[in-house]
Amino acid sequence: MPENVPKGRRSLNGTRAPRVYSDQRRCAAKKCTTRLSKYNRREHCFAHAPTKFPRLRGRIVPEN
Fold it and tell me: What pLDDT, on the 0 to 100 scale, is given for residue 3?
């Protein structure tokens, strides 16, 4: 193999482990018994999560 061929090597650090939260958490909404994933950082399940609007840059949103 020629000497001028670049060689790669693996990262020494590897990948970082995902952040984990308590696995015994429940949705914060009243009367909801949904158990949240240990990877979900939110306090509510998808059905009870507050509405979030995306950040729109340079677009005109029609108001009805």
Answer: 75
Give the C-alpha separation, 47 to 21, whole Å: 20
Tokens 């949705």 found at: 27
Q: Give the start-to-end residue ranges of the domains of the chain.
A: 20-51
**With b meaning 16 or more CB within 10 Å and e meaning fewer, what string describes 19-51?**
eeeeeeeebeeeeeeeebeeeeeeebbeeeeee
| pLDDT at res. 54 | 79
Q: Given pLDDT bands bounded at 50, 70 and 90, which one contains residue 32? A: very high
**Max CA pair span of the chain:** 69
Spatial distance between the Cα atoms of 52 and 25, rounded to a whole number of angstroms: 22
| Each residue's pLDDT tens digit, 45-62 | 999 999 988 777 776 767
